[in-house]
Amino acid sequence: MMKSKYLIFILAAILFAAACTKNSSTTSAPPSTGQGGSLARFTIMGTRLYTVDGAYLHVFDISNNSQPQYKNKVYVGWAIEAIFPFKGKLFIASNTAMYIYNTNNPDLPAMDSYVQHLTGCDPVVANDSIAFLTIHGGNRCGSSINQLQVYDIRNIAYPTLIQTIPMTRPMGLGLKDSVLFVCDNTSGMRVMNVKNPYQVQEMYRVTTETFIDVIPMDSIMLCMMPNGVAFYNITNLNQIQKLGEVKD
Amino acid sequence: MKLIDLIIKPLYMKKTLLHPLLAATTLTLLAFYWTACIKSAPTEVVGFKPVYANPATIRDISNGPARTIVNGGKIYAYKNWAFQIENGEGIHVMDMSQPNQPLKLGFIKIHGCSEISIQNDVLYSDNDRDLVCINISQYPSISLSSRIEKIFPGVSQEIPPYEGVYFECVDPSQGQVIGWTEVLLTNPKCKR
Question: How many domains does chain B contain in total?
């Protein structure tokens, strides 16, 4: 009787110790993850790689980076265009809608809500309270609509369209603090103040190149062009400055 | 009198010869047969032709010298590296440690690629229909650490991506279809 009690105690101690070492080993090496643009169909959140194609969201467990495990294929909807991650949420843009998924179970994201919008190709970016979506037309996109849409997502179950701003032919977009960068084809990059999302205001435009997408980082921004990339200093959002480019 | 009556009526005017419903069905079937009949195709028509590649070539992933950016695709930032996809062909690797003097470092050849994501020096991309994981910790030396096959839709092996078009029928013995190109076809045998 006494023996088995000791055994249980020892077993519990071993389990506890094992749990501890496991914990400390995972926290000691934070993953180093890159950053993509708003047009991306691949994104990494935590230890999962999420990809979208056509109609599906695919989930891969990359806890062991070199040996991913294919976990799930989730049907989302028709003509999926892009995926954007933010704090446990996945914003998925399609030709006709924006879907918001939670990753409470990282292997099986579940839909919180979706909003249908006018037909067009459209990437999305978001923060805690607002989602920004551009819609552009063209043959493949099935419409001639070109605009920026602003959604209030404080109630994640009911995203509400709060503002629509006409554009030339917007593509990618990027958010840095309260400034939104919108790549608007021949009209250049529109730098917009979104502090008050009900009253988004254009601050200025950068027309030196044809921007397609942007990745704003801490102090620099990587910009996509049809034939290369450009780097901008964004420490002063009131006047971003070009640093260099790789262009052919 | 409607046009349809003009066509169908003579068929059932002669008593009990043809029930109107039967006549309509026959006509519809004839119409379908006529549109589907390839023999009615023009001898020369603009259509689509499959582009083939050797499956081994498609799976070959390697790093080579920097290339010209022709059809620049999506971008990605990781540590001091910047990346741009060359649509369908691979990934340009750039050094952005000095953003005022960025440099091209090389080009990773990945057939059919359009996407990229990186964590802990492992680059994930799409190689045609497969997800590939490439270790870049020793760049410019790279190694394929794993491949998960047939995840993505890829290019159809049977039909071109447009409806109502003539095309050259696929011959699987010529390899894997990696794309469709618009050409002038002579006596096409296939139509979508």
Answer: 1
CB contact under 8 A, A228 and B84: yes
**In angstroms, rounded to a whole number, what is the distance separating the alpha carbons of residues A146 and A135?**
5
Tell me which residue in A44, A227, A233 faces B119 most closely, judged by beta carbons: A44
**Section A204-225 average pLDDT:** 96
Residue A15 pLDDT grade (very low, low, confident, very high; cuts 50, 70, 90): very low
Check residue B27 and give its pLDDT: 57
Are A117 and A149 a contacting pair, CB within 8 Å?
A: yes
Cβ-defined contact of A66 to B135 (cutoff 8 Å): yes
Contact A246 B122 (CB under 8 A): no
The answer to the question of residue B186 being in a domain is no
How long is chain A? 248
Name the residue facing A35 among B77, B114, B120 (closest C-beta).
B77
Select from B118, B146, B151 the Cβ nearest to the Cβ of A67: B146
Contact B33, B26 (CB under 8 A): no
- CATH number attached to the domain at A33-247: 2.130.10.10
A45: alpha, beta or left? (left if phi > 0; alpha if psi -120 to 50): beta
Report ipTM for this prediction.
Answer: 0.87
Q: What are A's interface residues with B at a Cβ cutoff of 8 A?
A: 31-37, 39-44, 49, 51, 53-54, 58, 60, 62, 65-68, 70, 213, 215, 217, 220, 222-229, 231, 233, 243-248
Extract the tokens encoding B70: 């022709």
Q: Is B177 within the bounds of a domain?
A: no
- Going by pLDDT thresholds of 50, 70 and 90, the confidence category of residue A26 is very low
Q: Is residue B162 part of a domain?
A: no
Is residue B5 in a domain? no
**Residue closest to B86 by CA, chosen among A224, A240, A190, A199:** A224
List the single residue in A53, A213, A231 with the smallest CB-CB distance to B99.
A231
Query: pLDDT for B10-57, tens place per residue?
Result: 444 444 455 666 666 655 555 544 444 455 566 888 899 998 888 888
Q: Which domain holds residue B100?
A: 57-148
Please list, residue by residue across A13-47, b when 16 or more beta carbons sit within 10 angstroms of its beta carbon and e when fewer do: eeeeeeeeeeeeeeeeeeeebbbbbbbbbbbbbeb
Q: Is the model's pLDDT at A18 over the cut of 80?
A: no
Residue ranges per structural domain of chain A: 33-247
Q: A246 vs B119: CB contact, 8 Å cut-off?
A: no
pLDDT over 80 (residue A9)? no
Mean pLDDT of chain B: 84
What mean pLDDT do residues A173-185 have? 96
